[in-house]
Each structure stands twice: as structure tokens, then as C-alpha cells.
Amino acid sequence: MSLYHVLGAKQFTRPMLDQIFEVTEEMERIVADGGSDTYRNKVMTTLFFEPSTRTRLSFESAMSRLGGKVIGTENAAQFSSTIKGETLEDTIKVVSAYSDVIVIRHTDIGAAERAAAVATVPVLNAGDGAGEHPTQSLLDLYTIKKEIGRLDDLHIVMIGDLANGRTVHSLSYMLTNYKNIRISFTAPENVQIPNYVKKYLDEKGVAYEEEYDLEKVARTADVLYQTRIQKERFTSLSEYKKACGQYIIDSELLKVMKQDSIILHPLPRAGEIAVEVDEDPRAAYFRQAQNGLFVRMALLDQAFRAK
Amino acid sequence: MSLYHVLGAKQFTRPMLDQIFEVTEEMERIVADGGSDTYRNKVMTTLFFEPSTRTRLSFESAMSRLGGKVIGTENAAQFSSTIKGETLEDTIKVVSAYSDVIVIRHTDIGAAERAAAVATVPVLNAGDGAGEHPTQSLLDLYTIKKEIGRLDDLHIVMIGDLANGRTVHSLSYMLTNYKNIRISFTAPENVQIPNYVKKYLDEKGVAYEEEYDLEKVARTADVLYQTRIQKERFTSLSEYKKACGQYIIDSELLKVMKQDSIILHPLPRAGEIAVEVDEDPRAAYFRQAQNGLFVRMALLDQAFRAK
Amino acid sequence: MSLYHVLGAKQFTRPMLDQIFEVTEEMERIVADGGSDTYRNKVMTTLFFEPSTRTRLSFESAMSRLGGKVIGTENAAQFSSTIKGETLEDTIKVVSAYSDVIVIRHTDIGAAERAAAVATVPVLNAGDGAGEHPTQSLLDLYTIKKEIGRLDDLHIVMIGDLANGRTVHSLSYMLTNYKNIRISFTAPENVQIPNYVKKYLDEKGVAYEEEYDLEKVARTADVLYQTRIQKERFTSLSEYKKACGQYIIDSELLKVMKQDSIILHPLPRAGEIAVEVDEDPRAAYFRQAQNGLFVRMALLDQAFRAK
Predict the structure, then answer these.
(1) Which ipTM did the prediction report?
(2) What's the mean pLDDT in C157-176?
(3) Among the partner residues B70, B75, B269, nearest to A86 by beta-carbon distance
């Protein structure tokens, strides 16, 4: 049942998730004890065709904390053989020869699956365009488990750009593994949750609703999952502006939220959570970022063991 | 006889090549056994004034597999002190102070020699403009030796952009160390092998011919060495288009090739070898890329021992 | 008294400087003995919002020589979450979770202090715009101590762009810790030393003068500290040209300099020290660059011990 490739949220079953989170807890202890050099002879390659400093550094720190070596490129699209006309498949075949694991971020949906199809080493999807971002969803779930104490019986409100935000898609898919989940989608009119996500939830029997009144759903929410309106995904500035600023989490909203609820955000934020919220104990988004390190360590560990 | 700087193909004698390939075989075993940490206290700096993700990752993986540390820059031309007016010589003097070995890629012919002249550590040339790319030629030769079993008595066909392709120049020079070599140069009219390469082969008594009929020479070839028409080396699009698409290795050509021949390519490719060829056992170009790791490990090992 | 953050020159007292230089000497011995792996489980993140290959490589080599791991970004401004609208504070909070120390270079004055205010790990300022560059000044002082044998009783001439050159500001501040210091500021008319630096020297009782005759002050100088006219800090080309080429150190100037004096330069240079000077034993600027490695190792060591 050990993991090899990590490609999309739908590949995970509840027992797999249980096991990953168990290893993640072990990784927390390893970091607290000063790190490990178990994988000192392993090489991880980060191939980022789309920049994402945060996600890249998180993976590179995870590999370093396990004692491993990191090579890679910050900007594969601009510098690599790609501009000389090389296919992704050829790039992956060659990079496989230099690596024990490949972490890929790409602009195209399905790129990670194409990479995995030809790679001779495990491939971890660090985001493929408007597709998926499964390692983010794993750290989201792990954070909920750690903060709230359970992954069943939850009311989760997803807020912001639900059309382009791949993290909410992946998280929705993964939540279908749990019982008695209720999701509220709270999005500006022009960036609502896609039908294919709703269809998947229907198939899996997960309850959801589209609700425009943030204050109303915040009253019963266990988790407010805020996301950024991603300017770079919009083709027109006027569409972007229409989506912006409609749903902001601030000290007023904190007042109606339950005491044992939490606020998550995949980060970076750009104003959709007021800075004043940071001091509230329910603001869990920086702890969530920290959990990304532990979860990615666990995924690397699983990949090396599976090999 | 141990190597220190690796600057150009002409510096290598047959005994030196024999020794490098012997160490390379040892490196293959070391990688198979899970790597080494012999050079854990050594620091390699990669200075890439011209992007080449593939070559850089290959060197960085090689250093990592030997346990060493890697620092460097993906794009020295854009980011470094160069844009502040610093000479290459000053850059190298400073970087020498931080490094145990420098791997340099530069746009200017002779840049690696200029670097070696002032460096206080070994310099490995990872390509200097339209000049040389000696580590590529070493891995080419190693691949031929490993795949065909010998480096004497060979018919080698070099195909594609032979005017701008530095790998074919360096490989031609190195082949003069071996007996009974016959080279066929098969290039589009506007990118033929330069006179200075032919002159060197004449001096060394190596047999060569310029032949426009690829199918004819493929019948007797032991090695088909295909190269990409390098768009970035052309000043006019019409010249580029004239050179493109004339010589493609596909399943039709496979039919006339000898069973014990091989196809090499320095990669990346951009259509000049059809994807259908990949499945044929004679398609050795991905194994060739893998050999790059072992050869570069051997060169680093030699450089550290020579010090 | 152990150091944690390194933010600006004014934070250093003479006993702190004594201690840093003692550790620096130890680091020289460690490098001579082949390095250390004391900090093999530590991770350093380099966040360079403004490119500076030299400074970054110096820090990364320092961390590597101590056995540590390095992650980071060459060009945080272009690639990071910053372009998605993230504040520096948010970036630092997240990166803190992945790192044991953060090295930051930024375009804005005070950026390092803002980073330190929210970081949960030590922050080392590698230059904040036209603000400070304290690690450079520490290596400058260390070089003077090593080359001249003392840090009291010195005549130091600072030459070049004294308006925009943060290294001369930081160095001037640090020199106030020593006795009987005399500073001559020799700058083109449009890039003279700012009043706030002179005011600080006045407060601390350090003797200084503004002197346009380089040859005159060079006769008594113990240290000529030359700096580059930084084209990138000028808004008009004509202003830049006015400042350029006025004060050049060449073989003629060497003739009037004292035999036991030294020439320093933070590098890169762009013509303001003639290449012919390099061979003179008083040309200490490349040894100075080398000392940067040792000083940064000492600062990392202090930061990890303070933690």
C-alpha cells in the first residue's frame, strides 16, 4: 500500500491517508529531534516549469531534513531544453537518469501524469496548471486532523476563487474519503466551483451547497478555507476586479465563528485575510504551511520505501 | 597523468581516455551500490552564463552522488556581477575562493581556458559557445565503448548541424586517438562541417567523407550520431528552415541499419529522431544521457585526486 | 553575547567584534583542514530579492563548508509569492518554518529588520537596498586586522561612490568601535558621503575629512578602500558619467602609497582599479573576498549557537 507516484487527489483511499498521516507525525518528531540523514545518498530533482518559490522550498527543505541532496531548476520553462523544442517526456526520461525522485510543477493539466508514465523514478505532482495540487491537499487534511482532532463530521467552507483554485478541487476530492462531510462553496459569481467537482461529490454522496452569505456559513463552520483570487488566471482585469474583495476574513467575521473552528489558506494571501486575524488562535494558516514540510517528508519517505 | 582542468577535446591522449573510462566504470558500480560520500566536504560551483538545464543537472547529480555539495547559478549572464561590468577573470578568482571545482558554461569560445588560467581550483568546461563541449564527447565515446565494445575500427556518421554543433567537433577530435576510424559527415548544405575540423582530421590521418545520402552511409554505420538543427545559432529564419527536416532518423531508416549499430544524440532532440525509434534496442540516446552522470563523476573524482 | 540576527553595523560592540574575529580564525583552520559537518542537519535559506551572485555564493559556500544544507532562490522578486501580492512578513513567516537560518538580500532599506521582527529563526542581512551590508563590513574589518595587524590607529581612505555605496556606510559605522581612526572620504562631487554618516562619526568622535586629492591622502593611508560607481543606482546617464573615471587606482598611485598599506574593494570592480595593480602585494581585494567565506561561516556558527 506504500505510495510511489503522487499525482492527484483521487488516487488516495482512507487507509492510504491514515498511513501517510502516521508517517507525517513521525516526521514531526524527527524534525524536533534535529533531522535525519537516512536519505543522504538520494537525489531529488525539482522541475518547476511554473515558478512557486514556496512549494519548491518546502519540498527542498523536506528532502534536506531527511539528509538528501537537491538539484533542480527554478524556472524550467525559460531555461531548459523546452525552449529548444524538447518534449516533456524526453526531459523526464533524461532527468530520471540523474534522480531518485522528481518533483514537478507545470502549467499544463495532466503534466505530472505524463511525466510519471515515462519516469523511472517516483514523480510528485507539485501542481499542474488549473489541474491538481495533491500535496497541498494532504497538508490541508493533516492540519485539520491535527487542529480539530478529526476528519469526519466536519462543515468546511471554501471561499474565494473556486474556479481556478486547484487546491480546493483536490481538497474536495480527498474529503470524499471521510464521513458526514458538508462543504459550502462561497465564491464570487464569476469564479464558482466547476460542475465536474460537484459531479464528483454527487457520485461520492458528499453534501455540498453554494452559498453567497459568508457570515451565515461561518457560524457553523469547523473550517474556513480561504483562497486568493489568482490575478494570473484571469484574462481580463475587469473580471479580476469583479472577483476581488468580496469575501474577506476579518475581526468582524471572527466574532461569529465557533471557538473551536480554524481558518486555513494555502498562501500566499493578498488581502483576503486581514492581518489583524493573525493573532487569533483560530488562524491556523502559518501552522498549516509548517505542516507542509512534514507531509512532504512523509511523501518522500514513502516514495523511497516503495522503490 | 591524472586530469585537472577539462577544457577541450584535444587535450586527451588514448591512455588518459582509457583511465577515465576505467574510473567511469567504477562510478557506475558506486551508483548501483547506492552512492558515496567520499567528497562530502567538497564544494562544486556551477557557473552557467548560458542556460543548459540538462548539462547542469547532470554535473550537479554527479557531485551529489559523490557526496559533495553544490552551489551555483542557473543564469550567470543575467544575475551575476557580469552585468555590473566584472570581467570573467575577476569572477573566477573570487569563485575559486569559495569552491573546490568550477563547472563553467559560457557563450564565448575560449572562456573555459581563460577561466582555467586564473582559477586556483580545477575548471571543467561544460560548453563554450560554438567552441567545445569535451565532457559530452567523453560520454559519447564511453557510450560507444560500452554499447559496441570497442573504440577502434568504427564507421561513424555525424548528421545534422555540423557547422554549429560543437559536440561533433569535440567528438571528431577525440576520435583521432583511435585506429581505423571512418567518419561520414551528413549535413544540410548550409551547416556543413567546418574546414578546421577537416584539417585536423587530415593532420591526424583520420578518414572522412562528406556524404549527402543518409540511407547509403547508414547501411554500413556502426554509429549514427544525430544532432539537432540549433535554431538559436541561426541569424535568419530562412537559413534555419533550409537546414531543418532534411535528415530524420525514423523506422524506415532503421530497416537499412546494421543490427549491431547504435543511434546516439546529445539531446535535446526536436523531431530529428522520430519517437517511434525509441523502442528499438539500437536507440541508445537515453542510455547515453545516463552515462553522462557516470563520466562526470569520474571527471570530478580525477580533478579532486589531481589537486 | 552570542549573535543571533545580523542586521546592521551599529549593532556591533568591540567585544562582539573581537569574538566574531576569533571564531573567524577558527573557521580558517577548519577550511584548511578540509571542512566540517557540524551543521549537517541545518538548513539555510537564501532569499535574494535583488541578484547578487557573489554574496549568495559566499554564504552558500560558508554553509556548505560547515556541512549544512542550502535551499533558496536566486531571484525572489521575480519568482516568489511576492508577485502574487504577498507581504515580506508573510514570506518570512512561512520560510522560517522551512529553515534554521535565513539570509536575505532586498531592494528596500530596513527589509532585513522587518524580516527579523517576524522570523522564528536568525536573519542575516546580505544587503538591504541603499541601506546596509553588515557582513561585508565585518569581512572588511577582518581583512584589515589580518593584513595590517591592528584595527586601532588607522588612516582609511574611502573612494568612489560614497553616496550609494552601502559598504562604506556600514564600514564607517563599525570603525567607530576603534581608537585613533581617521577617515578620508574621496568622492566625485555628485556622490559624496551622506550627512547622516558624518553626523554619526561626529557623535562617536571619529576624525574624518572630505578630500578631493586622492594622491595626497594615498601617501599616508593604511587602507585605500576603493568602490565601484554603481551605474544601477543612478537615474541619469550623465550623472553616472560625471562620477566615473575620476579616481582610479593604478601603478602610478602605487608609487606614492606606503609599503605596508593595503588596497581593498568590495568587488565587483569595473575599471576603478587597473588590472596591473593585481600583482602588487598590497592588492588585498581577492584575499578580502576569500575572507568573506570565513566571516560568514563564523556568523552562521554564532547564529546556530545562539539559538
Answers:
(1) 0.94
(2) 94
(3) B269
What separation in angstroms does the CA of B304 have from each of A219, B14, C106? 66, 21, 36
Residue A81 pLDDT class (50, 70, 90 cuts): low
Judged against a pLDDT cut of 90, whether residue A307 lies above it is answered with no
pLDDT digits (tens, 9 = 90+) for C208-250: 999 999 999 999 999 999 999 887 777 788 888 877 888 999 9
Q: Which CATH class is domain B9-133+289-306?
A: alpha beta
CA distance C41 to chain A (A): 6
Q: Does A137 touch chain B (CB under 8 A)?
A: no
Which chain C residues touch A290 with a CB distance below 8 Å?
A: 97
Q: Which CATH number fits domain A9-132+290-306: 3.30.450.20, 3.40.50.1370, 3.30.420.40, 3.40.50.720?
A: 3.40.50.1370
Q: How confident is the model at residue B1 (pLDDT cuts 50, 70, 90)?
A: very low
Closest residue in A to B286 (Cα) is A94
Active site residue B40: no
C286: Cβ contacts below 8 Å, ≥ 6 apart: B93, B94, B97, C278
**Per residue, what are the HEC states of chain A?**
CCCCCECCHHHCCHHHHHHHHHHHHHHHHHHHCCCCCCCCCCEEEEEECCCCHHHHHHHHHHHHHCCCEEEEECCHHHHCHHHHCCCHHHHHHHHHCCCCEEEEEECCCCHHHHHHHHCCCCEEEEEECCCCCHHHHHHHHHHHHHHHCCCCCEEEEEECCCCCCHHHHHHHHHHCCCCCEEEEEECCHHHCCCHHHHHHHHHHCCEEEECCCHHHHHCCCCEEEECCCCHHHCCCHHHHHHHCCCCCECHHHHHHCCCCCEEECCCCCCCCECHHHHHCCCECHHHHHHHHHHHHHHHHHHHHHHC
Contact call for A93 and B289, based on CB within 8 A: yes
Which chains does A contact via 3+ CB–CB distances below 8 A? B, C
- For the ranges A37-46, C99-108, C237-246, the lowest mean pLDDT is seen at C237-246
Grid coordinates given for A219:
457560524
Count other Cβ atoms within 10 Å, centred on residue B178. Answer: 18
pLDDT digits over B33-72, tens only?
A: 999 999 999 999 999 988 888 899 999 999 999 999 999 8
Spans of all domains in chain B: 9-133+289-306, 134-286
Q: Do C84 and A230 touch (CB under 8 A)?
A: yes
Domain B134-286 has what CATH class?
Answer: alpha beta
Tell me the pLDDT of chain B averaged across its residues.
Answer: 93
Partners of C64 on chain B (C-beta within 8 Å) are 43, 69, 71
Q: Is A237 on the interface with B (CB under 8 A)?
A: no
B74 CB neighbours in chain C (<8 A) are 74
Inter-chain contact C268–B85, Cβ cutoff 8 Å?
A: yes
User: In CATH, which of 3.40.50.1370, 3.40.50.11290, 2.60.40.10, 3.40.50.20 is domain A134-288?
Assistant: 3.40.50.1370
Residues 74-113 of C with CB under 8 A from A: 74-76, 78-81, 84-86, 90-91, 93-95, 97-99
Q: Which of C35, C64, C289 sits opposite B97 (nearest CB)?
A: C289
On chain A, the residues whose CB falls within 8 A of the CB of B230 are 84
Please indicate if the annotation marks C169 as binding a ligand: no
- For position A79, what pLDDT does the model report? 53
* Chain B residues within an 8 Å CB radius of A40: 37, 67
| A274 inside 8 A of chain C by CB | no
Look at residues B147, B180, B185, B143 and name the one whose alpha carbon lies nearest to residue B163: B185
User: Higher confidence at residue C155 or residue A74?
Assistant: C155
Residue B130, pLDDT score: 79
Class assignment of domain C135-288? Answer: alpha beta
